[in-house]
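Re: Re: token formats

Sure, here are both.
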Amino acid sequence: MTKGDATELVPIHEPVIGLDVHQAQITACAIIEEAGGATRIEQRPFGGFKRDRRELAAWAATLRPDEVVIESTGIHWKSPHAALEGAGIRVTVVNARHVKQVPGRRTDIGDAQWLATLARAGLLRGSFVPPAKLRELRPIARQRQKLVGLLQSEKNRLHKVLTDAGVRLGVVVSDIHPRFLC
């Protein structure tokens, strides 16, 4: 799709921002319809640091977009998503495979503009992103799950060592690892 083709799609959202996110850089492309009906494209690069994400959120807030779209590539989308969400901007995370299959987009600016064009026409379906509170609790729950698994492995190892040494606790008690030992 070329720049001229973007006008053939019927806009549903105005204005929109597409973000192409990498580890050290975020490329933003905003498509804005002017009062006379003309379409203006504004492109800006942002760095990957926290101050850059705050600058991105402030810039996006001035445009008051209906939609901001980010591809869900790796973990790099999470920080810009959180910065924009913290600024009260609605962000849609889309599956990269759904938007990457169009030839001719080999630059970050091209990717960002393509995302904005698809978002403007309402052609993107967002991925599920849990609420912020749940996202904060996920690493804690995962760490707990990992520790519980390690504890069980150590209990099994201890049981095997005792059994190899001839101590058969399983014959005497029904539960060789009672709750109060945890």
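Second one below.
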Amino acid sequence: MGTLVIIAILSYLIGAIPSSLWVGKVYKKIDLREHGSGNLGATNTFRILGWKAGVVVSLIDFMKGFTAAFWISAIAIDAVPSVYHGWETSYFVQIFAGLIAVIGHMYSVFAKFKGGKGVLTACGMLYAIEPISISLALLVFLTVLITTRYVSMASIIASLLYPIFLLMLRYGFNFTIDGSLMVITALLAITIVVKHRSNIKRLLEGNENRIRSFSPAKGRINEEQAG
């Protein structure tokens, strides 16, 4: 139990790094919580600060999940007892560490418990565990994003398809994929969809924001600061 607590603390602190908040303050000396959607995620960073800052934030958020699931979990996998008959302990520890990092991203202690929606951090976690299925989900994400310019729609569709890809790999192509991964990722997909409920409402109403440009929103920042 003590080992899991250590993993949880380290994973949370890694996940809680508010990359978009810090990049916003360094890059433009602004608090992203006060601009655009107010969300501390890569999407709002792209909209407000442009593609360079957006790429930096995206990579950091991705690596938070990857670091927790790949490296932090590795420090104590052998020390954690089997938690459920039929589930691989290594999978469980990786998933546990990654999910704690996602929670840290969503509710960062460094940003007054505000954060992003966890998609990229979850993506990093899943890439550390099983890269093929998450690569397929990323392909879906990019396809939907490029064709629709809706980041929220791309995130929702990719999240829902990911557990299906796991099922296809396990039962259609005989990949060795632990049952715990399929159960947890299904729950994670539901959580991500719930976090996007306001986006879903705007999509249905036809007023969801699109990514129209990859340049910083200079005019928007100036207008908000003037107001």
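The CA atoms of residues 69 and 98 lie 5 Å apart. Residues 222-227 have pLDDT under 50 and may be disordered.
- S.
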